[in-house]
Amino acid sequence: MCRIRMSKVWSGFVVCPLGAAMMLAGCGNTEQAANSVAEASARQSGEAAAAPGNEAGEGQPDLSQTEEVSIESGMEIGAIPLPFDVEDVTGPNQGKHLCYRCLYGERPVVGIFVRDLGQKTKSLIQKIDQEVASHQDEKLAAFVVVLTDDPASAKPELEQVAQETKIKHVPLTVFEGAVGPAGYNVANEAAVNVMIWEGEVKANRAYQKGQLNDAGIQEVIADTRLIVQGS
Asked: CA 121 to CA 217: how far, in whole Å?
């Protein structure tokens, strides 16, 4: 006795071996029954191939439509930033090793941790410099920290950035160690990580290399203004 399996395409069609076909045909013509099964199978295969959703490649994810995935980097909201030392390259304390986290205390602070000084990063620094200038009464402060295993090679580039951007209120500093200061959790793939705090972390945004754009810069500015307004 044959097993009967219902086709997904022809829901009412029964596919059986040759013996069952002969039985269904009244066992009168084996060749005719075999041909009937073969023709039906061919029709079934053809319709299955032509059925909607079975085209080659259909149902596969369109990678061109994949959204960018945000990276996890930096301190969590509510965390308390720990003290750490940097070397000031362009600020009022140029050439000194100091802790800006300690110096700024409980003031609203924008900490910009970078491994890439591309054009968008420079634009971000310029915008934050303007925000600091506009919010002196609120005591807004900011500083840039370049994370590098070779601070000496980073200094000339920072001096050039300061000249290009004409910044006056945001010191550019270097931290020895590409992994970043302990407790700040800057991910290896983060080219720019902006953390804003006022005693505790209020906002945190991170970008991979080439990911920071004008919209991202505006998000950081909006975060900064919200914190200043709430201080």
From this structure: 9
31 and 144 housed in the same domain? no
Q: Are residues 182 and 74 in the same domain?
A: yes
> Is 45 a domain residue?
yes
Q: Which residues pair with 98 in a beta bridge?
A: 86
Domain range for 194: 70-230
Label each residue of the chain as H, E or C: CCCCEECCCCCCCEECCHHHHHHHCCCCCHHHHHHHHHHHHHHHHHHHHHCCCCCCCCCCCCHHHCCCCCCCCCCCCCCCCCCCCEEECCCCCCCCEECHHHHHCCCCEEEEEECCCCHHHHHHHHHHHHHHHHCCCCCCEEEEEEEECCHHHHHHHHHHHHHHHCCCCCCEEEEECCCCCCCCCCCCCCCEEEEEEECEEEEEEEECCCCCCHHHHHHHHHHHHHHHHHC
Length reported for the chain: 231
Q: What is the C-alpha to C-alpha distance for residues 4 and 21, in angstroms, rounded to an integer?
A: 12
pLDDT tens track, the chain, 231 positions: 333 323 333 333 333 333 333 333 343 443 443 344 344 444 444 444 444 444 444 444 333 332 344 689 999 999 999 999 999 999 889 999 999 999 999 999 999 999 999 999 999 999 999 999 999 999 999 999 999 999 999 999 999 999 999 999 999 999 999 999 999 999 999 999 999 999 999 999 999 999 999 999 999 999 999 999 876
